[in-house]
Amino acid sequence: MTHPTDLLSAFLDDELSLEEHSAVTSHLEACARCPAELAGLARVRDWIRALPDQEPPVPLVPALRRPPRWIWAAASAAAAVLAIGLVVSPAQPEVFDLDTLAGQHTARVVVAPGISSIRGPVGGP
Amino acid sequence: MPDSKPTWEEVARDHGRRIYNFAYRLTGNPDDASDLMQEVLLRVRRGLAGYTPGSFEGWLWRITRNAFLDDVRRRKRRPTVALPEDDRSAIGSVPQPEDVLAESRLPEHLQQALLALPYDFREAVVMCDVVGLTYDEIAEATAVPVGTVRSRIHRGRKMLRGMLE
Asked: What is the gyration radius of the CA atoms in chain B, in angstroms?
């Protein structure tokens, strides 16, 4: 006897053609093994269908206005890389405090044409 | 849903929960499911302009499936671990029968068993038994013949039975 085991799930789901459905029905009436197989498959199907419905954690429509979590994660990672870059190789300041520098180094001053005097303390170590 | 072009708000309202549950059962965790649901709804909003009224379920679930697979690729993770021929022995921790009989733990065991299925089988079973799609709709969403869908659902349920009983 050939057992139509591969058709049993589709039989449960009423997804067989009329001919197939009729053939499986006839077989089940005569077979000692397939009804148990069918019952086992039906049990599994019932378990899956009885799994509790999960409630989405966020309102569905407002959720569309917020990017997925991975985008935030990517943005955070990019910000972290930028911050590390700033710490490791800080940008050179463009404005110097002349008073501080003057206390440690000899100042070299180039006077532009037309400037006759410089006011303020200029010194060096 | 009738054969007319819905708005994305209607899709979110009428299908968002099913998309979330599909994603939850495929991924097994609420955060990934939530991300996937949002991604699907965004794709639906973008794709509705090009949608031709017809098989809405096939269209929607094809988008959902592709979003899931894209997410898997982006995270460079495998959607599943393929099982050898002996389905039962391949599972590291097969639930004991007495545990399975404890009804309160069955959903947990069942979810773990679902996650242990090869992806194609898990997808077909979840689309059929969680989402409630017909075999034809699953075939359209997954771009495979109906005979393949039939086989995947049957083999998936059989593997689950082997793991849980």
From this structure: 17
Q: Model confidence over B74-83: pLDDT tens digits?
A: 876 555 444 4
CA angle B138, A34, A27 (to 5 degrees): 90
> Cβ contacts (< 8 Å) between A9 and chain B: which residues?
150, 153-154, 157-158
pLDDT tens for each residue of A34-43 = 999 999 999 9
The CA-atom distances, in angstroms, between A70 and each of A93, A96, B46, B75, B78 are: 36, 42, 19, 10, 18
Kindly compute the dihedral angle of the four CA atoms of residues A6, A47, B21, B78, in this order, to the nearest 10 degrees: -60
Residues of chain A contacting B130 with CB distance shorter than 8 Å? 48-49, 51
Residues with Cβ within 8 Å of B70's Cβ and at least 6 positions away in sequence, in order, are: none
Assess contact for B136 and B148: CB atoms under 8 A.
Answer: no
Instruction: Check if B41 contacts A (Cβ < 8 Å).
Output: yes
Q: Give the global pTM.
A: 0.68
Distance CA(A70)–CA(A101), nearest Å, equals: 47
pLDDT at B121 (0 to 100) = 97
